Amino acid sequence: MPIIRKVMDLRTARAICLPKSWLEFYERENDCNITEVAIEVNNVLKISPILPNKEDRKARGRTSHE
Fold it and tell me: Quick check: is 26 in a domain?
């Protein structure tokens, strides 16, 4: 079932809020903080987290769950 979000007006732009549970899930699964997302538009709007690579996580003192 899709998650339905409202589009909000922010003066010169429009925005949607990402569900906190979605961000927390990806952060837990990948042991990192999500600070950026990629947005693809091709008949559908696809939002994906941008995850730091393993070397960046190790440099920050975090390891993966592998």
Answer: yes
Residues ≥6 apart with Cβ < 8 Å to 51: 26, 30, 32, 34
How far is residue 14 CA from its own chain's centroid?
18
Helices and strands in the chain: count of H runs, count of E runs? 2, 4
Domain of 48, in residue numbers = 18-59
- Tell me whether residue 4 is in a domain: no
- pLDDT tens per residue, range 45-65: 899 999 887 655 555 555 444
Paired tokens of 57: 């996580």
Does residue 5 lie within any of the structural domains?
no
Q: What is the pTM of this model?
A: 0.62
- What one-character DSSP code corresponds to residue 43? S
Residues 27-44: pLDDT tens digits? 999 999 999 999 999 998
Structure tokens at 20: 């906190």
